[in-house]
């Protein structure tokens, strides 16, 4: 009998990039077996997709409610153990809640829900279910981000005093400037995406990353958002000032209208003894800056890296590790938790990260609407 964790997936069918990412990531360490799911809302497309990726169609269900009902009929030794939610944002909460209530472990795309209130309900539901819940803030899985986290914790750059995170994309330009397109895409529909587009989609990555690598919590924010057109209800660009304490400050710069940018996510953390810088488009290099020595460049796979970083490195030095590997490390951590094995708390983002992310999104929008004022997080 296979000892692999039985995985179900909701969404991610067709040519979905996020679907490929999750399927490949789950297969990396031979810990999961994809047994079924609901990949598309149309049953014929759903079944056709399952056949295309080579999984049996007997557990490819017509809808989410049918999946729950039919899986619960199976013996515990056969039913799905964990379900990944890759659907549009507005479906995350009802799906995750019902899965938790029925004893399933959950891996959920971000943003975790569409409101902070929903996020709190999910956390309460998880407390009762005693299952495992992970939010896929994917970039926390990169080996050199994990190295950054451990170096900051060990005091390698001293006391953190300045944080600067940039996340620039340009993909929404062809949509935002076309009235017909921007009124039909779910990303710009508050009913499906929540109250924020840019901050909810990529700003929340930046926020989670800052708290992940520094180990600190943001206390106050001040936000200025750009909607580009008066009839557009969703932000597509924004800057957020951060306060961690009286003398520790930072900022998040995000945009989906940064023309020509692809996925320019840059994390810079400065302490009183040095700084660390990482760029998602060149993720195998962690730059260590100091005032009294030449620039140091750290790379994955070397013995000088931390145990957490090395555990997330699958290849010898000199072999690039990318976003599939990063997501794979998150799935690996979740597998350890499901199997009740020992794992590092930094191996996967938890529901608490998802809750803080939703709170951040709402506070950013509130700060902007109040005329760019400071708001407690």
From TrEMBL:
InterPro entries in the cross-refs: Gfo/Idh/MocA-like_OxRdtase_N, Gfo/Idh/MocA_oxidoreduct, GFO_IDH_MocA-like_dom, NAD(P)-bd_dom_sf
GO molecular function annotations of the record: nucleotide binding
Gene3D superfamilies (alphabetical): Dihydrodipicolinate Reductase, domain 2, NAD(P)-binding Rossmann-like Domain
Transmembrane segments: none
All residue ranges annotated as the GFO/IDH/MocA-like oxidoreductase domain in the record: 145-276
Annotated protein name in UniProt: Predicted dehydrogenase
PANTHER family in alphabetical order: CONSERVED EXPRESSED OXIDOREDUCTASE (EUROFUNG) (PTHR43708), OXIDOREDUCTASE (PTHR43708:SF3)
Domain Gfo/Idh/MocA-like oxidoreductase N-terminal intervals: 8-137
Parts forming coiled coils: none
Source organism: Sinomicrobium oceani
């Amino acid at each position: 009998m296979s000892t692999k964790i039985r995985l179900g997936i909701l969404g991610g069918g067709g040519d979905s990039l996020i679907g490929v990412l999750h399927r490949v990531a789950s297969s990396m360490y031979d810990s999961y077996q994809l047994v079924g799911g609901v990949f598309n809302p149309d049953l014929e497309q759903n079944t056709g997709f399952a056949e295309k990726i080579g999984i049996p169609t007997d557990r490819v269900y017509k809808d989410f409610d049918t999946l729950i009902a039919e899986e619960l009929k199976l013996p515990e030794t056969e039913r799905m153990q964990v379900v990944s939610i890759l659907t549009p944002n507005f479906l995350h909460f009802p799906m995750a809640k019902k899965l938790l209530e029925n004893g399933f472990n959950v891996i959920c795309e971000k943003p975790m829900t569409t409101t902070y209130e929903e996020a709190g309900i999910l956390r309460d539901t998880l407390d009762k279910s005693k299952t495992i819940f992970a939010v896929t803030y994917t970039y926390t899985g990169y080996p050199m981000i994990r190295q950054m986290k451990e170096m900051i914790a060990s005091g390698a750059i001293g006391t953190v005093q300045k944080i600067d995170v940039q996340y620039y994309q340009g993909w929404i330009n062809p949509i935002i400037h076309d009235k017909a397109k921007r009124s039909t895409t779910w990303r710009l529909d508050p009913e499906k995406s929540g109250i924020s587009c840019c901050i909810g989609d990529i700003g929340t990555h930046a926020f989670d990353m800052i708290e992940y690598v520094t180990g600190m919590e943001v206390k106050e924010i001040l936000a200025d958002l750009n909607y580009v057109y008066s009839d557009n209800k969703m932000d597509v660009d924004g800057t957020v000032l951060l306060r961690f304490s009286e003398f520790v400050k930072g900022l998040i710069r995000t945009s989906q209208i940064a023309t020509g940018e692809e996925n320019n996510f840059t994390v810079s953390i400065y302490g009183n003894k040095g700084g660390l810088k990482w760029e998602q488009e060149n993720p195998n290099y962690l730059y260590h800056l100091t005032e009294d020595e030449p620039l140091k460049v750290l790379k994955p796979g070397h013995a000088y890296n931390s145990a957490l970083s090395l555990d997330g490195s699958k290849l010898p030095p000199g072999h690039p590790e990318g976003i599939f590997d990063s997501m794979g490390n998150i799935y690996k951590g979740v597998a350890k938790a499901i199997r009740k094995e020992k794992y590092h708390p930094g191996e996967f983002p938890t529901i608490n990260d998802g809750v803080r992310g939703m709170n951040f999104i709402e506070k950013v929008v509130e700060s902007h609407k109040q005329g760019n004022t400071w708001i407690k997080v």
